[in-house]
Design a protein that fits this description.
The structure holds two protein chains of two kinds. Chain A is an alpha+beta fold. Chain A has three helices and five strands; from the N terminus they run E-H-H-H-E-E-E-E. Chain A has a single domain, classed as Hotdog Thioesterase (Thiol Ester Dehydrase, Chain A). Chain B has one domain: Hotdog Thioesterase (Thiol Ester Dehydrase, Chain A). Chain B contains four helices and six strands; from the N terminus they run H-E-H-H-H-E-E-E-E-E. In chain B, strands 1, 2, 3, 4, 5 and 6 form a six-stranded antiparallel sheet that branches. The two termini of chain B are 23 Å apart. Classes of the chains: A alpha+beta, B alpha+beta. Chains A and B meet through helix 1, helix 3 and strand 2 of A and helix 2, helix 3, strand 2 and strand 6 of B.
Chain lengths: 155, 171
Amino acid sequence: MNRTPKPHIGLKLPDLFLPVTRKLVSMGAAASRDWQPQHHDPDWARKAGLPDIIMNNYTQAGLISRFVTDWSGPAGRIGRLRFAMRRPLCPVGNLTIRGAVVDLSAESDTLVWVEIDAEILVGDDIVTTATIRVALPGPGGDSSAWHCSGSRWNP
Amino acid sequence: MTSLPDTVKDWLGKPVIVMDHVLTVEQGLWANFCVAIEDANPLYWDYRLAREETETVIAPPMMLPSWAIDHDWRPEREGPAPRTLELHFMVKDALGYKNGLVTEVELELHEPLRAGDSVKAEQILRSVGDERETKLGTGRNWEIDVVYHKPDGTLAGVQKLTFLGYGRVEA
């Protein structure tokens, strides 16, 4: 549990690669109990003007979160995630999530906020853009960001 | 601004749909989500490793909104399950659009959820934009906030969603 990274502005996080399969799209929707037909029924999706079934927002949020915590380890506590789905994310090809640290701010000696800009690409196409604010333990403290609660937690 | 039906104007700025304790948070349910996205974060899986950070395992924070979505079927329920984000469908139907998509999402995360927790979710319509031409046809955006509390009143998080409604329902 003691592998908290030392971020700096401009630091690129390791890319996350994943094939976008029908299994991923439909299982992510099912696991979030999202039975809207555009996430599992290709015929319905096409009639609605979409190219195919599309990944739901919960699954995209989960993947972006994984991208960040694969890097930060469990010490990383995401406080805010904002993302825009610019194009439908359909089960074709491979997905890449890439991103970099764009801002750092120490809220106290024990907590550092790291802002990360990220994007999901399928091939060369950017389908989703995201900004993530994640808290890490500060240099002067050994307490976990997870122990911060109530008015002390300002995501 | 394009005129809005009075019903939609009346929904602005206050909780219209409240979902309370739809589901109990449990690890078996969140494990399926972790499997789907292959998320190995030990806070969701490993009681021993999670103890230092979060005392016990926690549900993946990004799953917060899903705890207000009921199972698709229940033995005691007659009729279909309540729709995910019912207020969104109410707005879409009231404005006369066939289709609606989420285009932007913001999640502000507070207290994590653990097995045995549940949430109270309040859906609030924040704004409705003017009708415009979109890549999918004539449509417009609207914004809905969902505020999630734990049973003891602790804030679990806030979800802000932007929707696009498109495709006129034929008269």
